[in-house]
Amino acid sequence: MNQKNDDFYKWKRGFKQQQKQDRRDLLRRAFLVFGSIIVVGILFFYWSKGSFQFIGRETNEVEAYEILIKDYHIGKGFYIPRLTIKYRHNHKTYVTYKNINNSSKHKPTGDNDAVYVSANVTYAVNNPKNCRVRLIFD
After folding, report:
1. How many other CB atoms are there within 10 angstroms of residue 58's CB atom?
2. Amino acid 116: pLDDT
3. What residue segments make up the domains of the chain, in order of their start?
4. Cα separation, 38 vs 54, whole angstroms
5. Which whole-number Å values give the CA distances from 127 to 88, 90, 132, in the listed order?
6. Which residues pair with 96 in a beta bridge?
7. What angle do CA 116, 124, 62 make, to 5 degrees?
8. Mean pLDDT over the full length of the chain
9. What are the tens digits of pLDDT across the range 32-85?
10. Burial code of 96-119, b = ≥16 C-beta within 10 A, e = fewer?
11. DSSP 4-38
12. Does 109 have pLDDT greater than 60?
């Protein structure tokens, strides 16, 4: 009888230790899952804003002072509108290009197809060539 009690208490002690270990493992997994959800949420937030290129950098926003629209030939008679956008930073002029994704098969229409009123350019202060353009429609 004494042998059975000792075996039972050994088993019980081992069982309780195993329960504690299982709870710790469950908490670790839960923290890992919730931490992953938070990281994915932050990445999705930056992705939806289009700000991945500016993470950890100081940015500035200016209005473009010149916007030229030309049809850019992409081959086999297809053209897409291409914007040439000029903006200034520290008395230097920077140029960036933005393609508008509506290709059509037609002749180039020329430079007088001004569709956009203005554009805001967000750029990294330490590297003004690294920029994002937000067009403001008429």
Report:
1. 8
2. 47
3. 2-49, 57-137
4. 20
5. 12, 12, 12
6. 85
7. 35
8. 80
9. 999 999 999 988 887 777 667 777 788 888 888 888 878 878 888 788 888 888
10. bebeeeeeeeeeeeeeeeeebeeb
11. HHHHHHHHHHHHHHHHHHHHHHHHHHHHHHHHHHH
12. no
